[in-house]
């Protein structure tokens, strides 16, 4: 079976004003795979992630060069519907950020924004998304109480359910477990293994062990550049580049 | 900035322990060869008694390796160094066993009249000592070239051992009174050849640690 490339960047440069934060990044993401982006703080992982669903558009004075594609479509094509793009490419952030609404409404939110009115369809999708986010059993009896009453780990899984509700093709995760305790982290990691059956996942993590545990491929960034990308198994046993080796063995960072 | 200074200190400590064990195994092999060539039963007994220390050290290093794997979750070369240390200590322990085996042959032969002189046997002792010394040096210095030379020498040891076998068979055919001694000498040659094999395993592991290439069962010509 030929591998399907879901997202690809080619010669991608990104600038915050004069500052070049990404330098010539060429990288492909296969469908139904988890790719981890690792590298020292400030190397451009989040910037790269935000390019993929055009979150950087919101920051004034920024500029993109090169090409980014979702399937065959150019993500930066003029006139592209950015809201529709973000429906296809969901995002989960470092800190869980549920809305101050009920659990149900948090998950239903994206559907309503996208114009779904059918009450039954919404209900079905909320349940399905909570199940996929491995949260259903814990919240099924209190769907209409406030999301803010959930624990941090539950809130993060709720945010994942919210991202999944609109049936995205790609899910971007920026250090999704860094604010969570070890048990909640484990739940998120297990969840990632499940989710890749249906979604393509790109995850930024500062934990090498986490990258090793959850991803199929790992890309190492350093100072705005892509230094090495390979199968995770190879990256963590036999990296080819000396900088990668030094970083993942903790000799710098 | 060094992020894992404490862990890397422990890795150095691991290497020191492996080197300590290597020194003991090498000494055992050297002394067993000396006891064999010189019919020295005291030295042979020393080798046999000394094996306990090698075994104990292997156990200690095993525990240390497990601890490092469980607590520090090493990666890349650090991971290979630990897996490599496990393989090397396993081979060092077997080297100790071969030294003991050879020492038993020496003990037996020390109670009998000498066998006809066999120049190839002396050559084999030199070859296996050299292979072992080079293998250990390649580990200390992470010298892949030297490790490859050890692998290349393995054939030489095998051929010598075969020639020794043939020669002792000839000797035994012409002189049946030496059969018992001859069999012990043939076994001794076999132990020396094993020393070469185990040294080759160590050398292959050095290549694995440094380059990540698994050359097991491949680098022998
Ligand atoms: N909004 C911004 N404005 C200006 N510079 C930024 C902004 N966000 C990030 N940067 C800079 O871009 C570089 C990459 O940052 P980031 O993508 O957040 O790195 P990472 O996620 O790998 O820690 C850093 O030098 C950072 O200071
Ligand atoms: Mg970041």
Task: Please tell me about this protein's structure.
The complex is a heterodimer of chains A (253) and B (221). Chain A has 253 residues and is α/β, with parallel strands linked by helices. Chain A is built from ten helices and ten strands. In chain A, the strands form two sheets. In chain A, strands 6-7-8-3-9-10 form a six-stranded mixed β-sheet, sandwiched between helices. A four-stranded antiparallel β-sheet of chain A has the order 2-1-4-5, with helices on one face. In chain A, helix 3 packs parallel to helix 6 (152-165), helix 4 crosses helix 6 (152-165) and helix 6 (152-165) packs parallel to helix 7 (182-195). Chain B is built from six helices and no strands. In chain B, helix 1 (5-37) packs parallel to helix 3 and helix 2 runs antiparallel to helix 3. Chain B is elongated and about 70 Å long. The chains are: A alpha/beta (253), B mainly alpha (221). Chain A binds chain B through residues 208-209, 212, 236-239, 244-245, 248-253, and chain B through 1-4, 7-8, 73-80, 212.
How do the strands and helices of this protein lay out in sequence?
The complex is a heterodimer of chains A (253) and B (221).
Chain A: E1 5-16, E2 19-30, E3 34-38, H1 45-52, E4 62-70, E5 73-74, H2 82-88, E6 89-92, H3 103-113, H4 119-132, H5 136-139, H6 152-165, E7 170-174, H7 182-195, E8 200-204, H8 208-214, E9 217-222, E10 225-231, H9 232-237, H10 242-248
Parallel strand pairs in A: 3-8, 3-9, 6-7, 7-8
Antiparallel strand pairs in A: 1-2, 1-4, 4-5, 9-10
Helix pairs in contact in A: 3-4, 3-6, 4-6, 6-7
Chain B: H1 5-37, H2 41-72, H3 76-109, H4 119-141, H5 144-174, H6 179-211
The complex binds adenosine-5'-diphosphate and magnesium ion.
Residues 16, 19, 21, 39, 41-47, 59 of chain A line the site of adenosine-5'-diphosphate.
